[in-house]
Design goal:
It is a single chain. By secondary structure, the chain is α/β, with parallel strands linked by helices. Among the domains are: 10-242, Serine Threonine Protein Phosphatase 5, Tetratricopeptide repeat, CATH 1.25.40.10; 471-550, Rossmann fold (3-Layer(aba) Sandwich), CATH 3.40.50; 577-734, Rossmann fold. It contains 37 helices and ten strands. The strands form two sheets. Strands 7-6-5-8-9-10 form a six-stranded parallel sheet, sandwiched between helices. The protein has a four-stranded parallel sheet with strand order 3-2-1-4. Strand 8, helix 36 (663-670) and strand 9 form a beta-alpha-beta unit.
């Protein structure tokens, strides 16, 4: 900014000297004293305007410039300085007109060309800004500030290599130019030359340690380098230098989010929003953090606030869709993904998650189309490939699904979900050699798999070493049904000369005590005795080389403790007819519950047959409770079934169990009780495909859906077979 420079009387010289020494009040008083004598004295009017501008009082400065220019309308310095003030007031078009007036008076006015470039940058008119800086540099080649700002303009145009050259010229002229080093770092960051960018920021900060912009951008670069703790420290320094730096507070929250320090991330976003309540990025990221904290309703509200501020925020629509899906509000989630895609049609994450929701809604053809759209945008997008495989898997188009899984794993060999889904397919097809090996990937899969993980210091045993004379801990890791199915391996491990400790959920301990070969049964919450090796129960088929033809199926391998059996035999009472146990639903929290459970009303056609029916359900849902109450002829013990030994004792008093795919079906099979298992179109891997029996349980019979969701066909076939069974029983009784 230029100062008043014409010839001054003595008082004017003193006023200018006071201004130059920072004594602004004294300079202002002297200038006003001059104006008291000569109201139209241009130099005094101009000096007062310059003083107001320096005091950050732009409206008063602008009025003073206008008074000065009313006296001398073609004064280039006043026109230029007035343009600077208009720029500060964000009246950019008027500022530009002011610079142009100054240059019309003085075409070689370097400062006007420089300031004009700054205003054109703000207006995003980068080519014109560049031309203005170039004109200034033709007149003054050593103008370091113009070179630095020229670099910023070239950066804005995406001409990064030229921008770097311009910064380097500025630094060569002024090695202490902290801003040039900082902006050079920004360009290196855009070029993904992160280590060089970091070095440039460090040079800037060595010159100016409290430069908030450099500290902020340094934090972004460290974040990209995944040096999270250092990034956090850099953002903290930026906030210390500028406490109202909303962007630094928001990005600080992003680092804490990556560090999974969710409560601290949330606090950082709140601080950013206290500075700028309508900061959409902070609202969006706050929503992500609240989702991680499982505060889903609050997360949804945060996304809604972001969208109220910026209705075209595609990422907020996407995040909103993610939360709505977790709330099982699938139709709303689908609409939110569609809104994201209306803003950003090539948003492949939204296309992928849209496919997932359509899968949940069992609109499989549309799900496939959505994955295909995502892959058209990004052919190497691993989650979409894997999810496409899951949908094909659900449709039992297994060869196509396998191609998707293999392609995803070729692109990302460590992709846990891809390995896990592939192993379920292999096991379902009966490829146990490959399937059990691949199944080991489950131990790295936490989300979407109920897996009780253990971090033992003792080595994992997978059959590779002799265990004679060793103590081995076999531990349950998944659901009750899995534990009941795979505890059959305990006698085989004991047969290798090992002392076997078995750790299971407390509800199974009394039942597991009957298992051959177990030295001690431990409840999961209790500390196990000392042991040498350990193995999860579902790794035992791999350790022992199980194939379909070698499944150990000697049943029964569990039995009911005698005192519990006596108690329940009395409670159930004498049998008058064929007695059948019913199970129509599993745990509502199971990831596959929607396709495996049915309602009690769906089974009522069976209950109309001439037999005694006993409910083996423990969890009773709303309408099922009503239906059960309406049918007083179905015996229900409910909360009296405290452990699986109680359930086993009731099963021992039955002739047949009819069950969907739950732990009770496994329990009946382990007790060698006849059990009819009702299976969805795509069954769990253990039931294989297209067969009516299973090598896991010789007394089991499988009734499968012939089309997705077709339970009525299953129940009809069960009813026919049950009538045949009742007829046989009647004939035997008559004989």
């Amino acid at each position: 900014m230029s100062n008043a420079t014409p010839t001054f009387p003595e008082a004017m010289k003193r006023a200018v000297a006071a201004y130059e020494h920072g004594r602004l009040g004294e300079a202002d008083d002297l200038a006003r004293a001059i104006l008291g004598v000569k109201p139209d004295y241009f130099d005094a009017l101009h000096l007062i305007a310059v003083i107001k501008a320096r005091q950050r009082r732009p409206d008063e400065a602008l009025a003073s410039y206008d008074r000065a220019l009313a006296v001398q309308r073609d004064h280039a310095g006043a026109l230029c300085n007035r343009g600077v003030t208009l720029h500060e007031l964000k009246r950019f078009d008027e500022a530009l007109a002011g610079y142009d007036r100054a240059l019309a008076v003085r075409p070689d006015y370097v400062e006007a060309l420089f300031n004009r470039g700054i205003t054109l940058q703000e207006l995003k008119r980068f080519e014109e800004a560049l031309a203005s800086y170039d004109r200034a540099l033709l007149l003054r080649p050593t103008y370091a500030e113009a070179l630095s700002n020229r670099g910023n303009t070239l950066h804005g145009l995406g001409r990064f290599d030229e921008a770097l050259a311009s910064y380097d010229r500025a630094i060569a002229l002024r090695p202490d130019h902290a801003g040039a080093f900082s902006n050079r770092g920004n360009t290196l960051h855009e070029l993904e030359r992160f280590d060089e960018a970091l070095a440039s920021y460090d040079r800037a900060l060595a010159l100016q340690p409290d430069q908030a912009a450099a500290l902020f951008n340094r934090g972004m670069t460290l974040h990209e380098l995944k040096r999270f703790d250092e990034a956090l420290a850099s953002y903290d320094r930026a906030v210390a230098a500028q406490p109202d730096h909303a962007e630094a507070l928001c990005n600080r929250g992003n680092v804490l989010l990556d560090l999974k320090r969710f409560d601290q991330a949330l606090a950082s976003y709140q601080r950013a929003l206290a500075v700028r309540p309508d900061y959409t990025e902070a609202l969006y990221n706050r929503g992500m953090t609240l989702r991680e904290l499982k505060l889903l309703d609050e997360a949804l509200a945060s996304y809604e606030r972001a969208l109220a501020v910026r209705p075209d925020h595609a990422e907020a629509f996407y995040g909103r869709g993610v939360v709505l899906r977790e709330l099982k509000r699938f139709d709303e989630a689908l609409a939110s993904y569609d809104q994201a895609l209306a803003v950003k049609p090539d948003y492949f994450d939204a296309l992928n998650n849209r496919g997932v929701v359509l899968h949940e809604l069992r609109r499989f053809a549309e799900a496939l189309a959505s994955y295909d759209r995502a892959l058209a945008v990004r052919p190497d997008y691993v989650p979409a490939l894997a999810n496409r495989g899951v949908t094909l898997h659900q449709l039992r188009r297994l060869d196509e699904a396998l191609v998707c899984y293999d392609y995803a794993l070729a692109l990302d060999p460590g992709y846990v979900d891809g390995h896990f889904n592939k192993t379920l397919l292999q096991l379902l097809k009966g490829d146990y050699d490959a399937g059990w090996r691949e199944y080991e990937w489950r131990r790295w899969k936490g989300e979407n798999l109920t897996l009780f993980k253990r971090d033992f210091t003792q080595p994992l045993w997978l059959g590779q070493t002799a265990i004679e004379g060793k103590t081995i801990l076999l531990h349950a890791e998944q659901g009750f049904g899995d534990t009941i199915q795979f505890c059959r391996y305990v006698p085989l491990v004991a047969g290798r000369g090992a002392r076997v400790l078995l750790e299971v959920p407390a509800q199974l301990t009394d039942l597991m005590a009957s298992l051959a070969g177990v030295a001690e049964v431990i409840a999961r919450q209790d500390k196990p005795p000392d042991f040498d090796l350990h193995c999860p129960l579902l790794s035992l088929p791999l350790a022992l080389g199980t194939r379909v033809e070698s499944i150990p199926a000697q049943v029964p391998y569990l039995s009911v403790p005698p005192e519990i059996l006596r108690r329940w035999t009395n409670a159930v009472g004498p049998k008058r007819n064929l007695r059948i146990g019913l199970v129509w639903a599993g745990s509502s929290g199971h990831v596959g519950d929607a396709i495996r459970s049915i309602s009690l009303r769906s089974l009522l056609p069976l209950a109309d047959l001439d037999a005694e029916f006993v409910s083996l359900q423990k969890e009773i849902r709303g309408d099922d409770a009503t239906a059960l109450k309406e049918r007083g002829d179905i015996v229900h013990f409910g909360d009296e079934l405290n452990t699986f030994a109680d359930t086993a004792a009731v099963i021992a008093n039955l002739d047949l169990v009819i069950s969907v795919d739950t732990s009770v079906a496994h329990l009946a099979g382990a007790l060698a009780k006849p059990v009819w298992v009702l299976l969805p179109f795509l069954p769990d891997f253990r039931w294989l495909l297209n067969c009516e029996d299973t090598s896991w349980y010789p007394t089991a019979r499988l009734f499968r859906q012939q089309a997705p969701g077709d339970w009525s066909g299953v129940i009809s076939r069960v009813a026919i077979e049950l009538e045949k069974l009742l007829q046989v029983c009647t004939e035997r009784t008559s004989a």
